[in-house]
Amino acid sequence: MTKHDIPGIVIGRLPLYLRAIQRMAQEGQRVTSSQELGERLGVSAAQIRKDLSQFGEFGKQGTGYNIKYLSAQLRRILNLDGVWDMAIVGAGDVGSALAHYQGFRDRGFQATMIFDKDSGKIGTKIGALAVQDIANMTEIIRQANIKVAMVATPADHAQEVTDQLVEAGVKAILNYAPIQITVPDDVRVEYIDPATHLQKMSYYLE
Amino acid sequence: MTKHDIPGIVIGRLPLYLRAIQRMAQEGQRVTSSQELGERLGVSAAQIRKDLSQFGEFGKQGTGYNIKYLSAQLRRILNLDGVWDMAIVGAGDVGSALAHYQGFRDRGFQATMIFDKDSGKIGTKIGALAVQDIANMTEIIRQANIKVAMVATPADHAQEVTDQLVEAGVKAILNYAPIQITVPDDVRVEYIDPATHLQKMSYYLE
DNA sequence: TAGATTGTTAATCGATTAACAATC
DNA sequence: TAGATTGTTAATCGATTAACAATC
């Protein structure tokens, strides 16, 4: 089984399944079914069973899925057994909010460094992180063996910063800049752009 | 033509097309083709032509699409001719970053109010906005005829806050809380959860 | 006119769902 | 045992792509 045997659209749903069952666990629930999970998430029970069956047999006929077990399996599949260190590029409002955000840790990630090019910001602290000079970024990231980064610069610097991250060995980039960026085949990019989400919805307004 | 004749997946791509051609316009370009646009966005030329053809004929054989014209048409289709006022719920780091964010305006939205329940925050200013008491939210939003809101509360308050927004007449919600929320059929919800994006990518790491 | 590119149809591809035997 | 629910297959549904006549 290579990574590419499984459609990306299936992989994209696994984190949603994980989030939902972790919440169920928090609420003290021990077992769930594809039906219950599907209702919570607004997807069909058949789809959940089919998705999970791509990776193994995690349920039991008649009773459903043990939540702790399924949670552990999903974390294993998604490479979330440890915690991935992340770099943040850009110490504006978005980068700052990301540096403060406490929610990553429980879900397998933590920001360990933040970079900016503004000399007025370099050296200041954002939460627990001191802003570092972007001029040294490539070397520092490579040294620390960081594989995950979040880009929170203005659009017109995003590609340049991305090139440096790739050069430094980063393999997964979460891009907050409202622009498409180009990377080699072995690097993944995901996008977060609130305005595009809002525009999707405004179509249906009025 | 009702709104539901056109697949949501097509609507979801229009903002990306718009973003790309607005950038082209900014760079002084006057005309583009489905091929060029597709290369920029990593989608096929055929898909772009097919998507656009759902709404009309915007191009010219032999030459392509006039950027200003296509941009205006997309804005019209997406209901972006004016500026939609938005409410922000939750004045933590995320709400605060959203309140400061200058990028919405050019893309058809602006935050005009922010609410929190913390009496220590109520009355303080975040950018141009004074934090208001969430206890008065429903009334204030209804009064102002606000149709769009962003939820930036902790997960365990997101549903409660959503119910109030719906009650106040909001029809589009961008939810930053890492939890699925339930709304009536005539209300749209989009989700932003950086951790799920990161988890999608970690599957491919190592 | 020759070259380029659209809008659209038909073919292909892929994803979702329904159904059910297996079995806890 | 009877009831419930899985994992999986086949059928359905929907989205993408290829191809090309129309035409700028």
Describe this structure in words.
- The structure is a homodimer of 206-residue chains.
- The first copy, chain A, contains eight helices and ten strands.
- Chain A has 206 residues and is α/β, with parallel strands linked by helices.
- The first copy, chain A, has two domains: 3-77, Arc Repressor Mutant, subunit A (Orthogonal Bundle); 84-196, NAD(P)-binding Rossmann-like Domain (Rossmann fold).
- In chain A, strands 6-7-5-4-8-9-10 form a seven-stranded mixed β-sheet.
- The first copy, chain A, starts with 7 loop residues before the first helix and ends with a helix.
- Chains A and B meet through α1, α5 and α8 of A and α1, α5 and α8 of B.
- The structure holds a DNA duplex (24 and 24 nucleotides).
Summarize the model shown.
The structure is a homodimer of 206-residue chains. With 206 residues, chain A is an alpha/beta fold.
Let me know the CATH homologous superfamily of the largest domain in chain A. Answer: NAD(P)-binding Rossmann-like Domain
Instruction: Compute the average pLDDT of chain A.
Output: 97
The N- and C-terminal alpha carbons of chain A lie at a distance of 48 Å
Overall spatial form of chain A = elongated
CATH class of the largest domain in chain A, named Alpha Beta
Beta percentage of chain A is 15-25%
Spell the H/E element sequence of chain A: HEHHEEHEHEEEHEHEEH
Low-confidence stretches of chain A: none
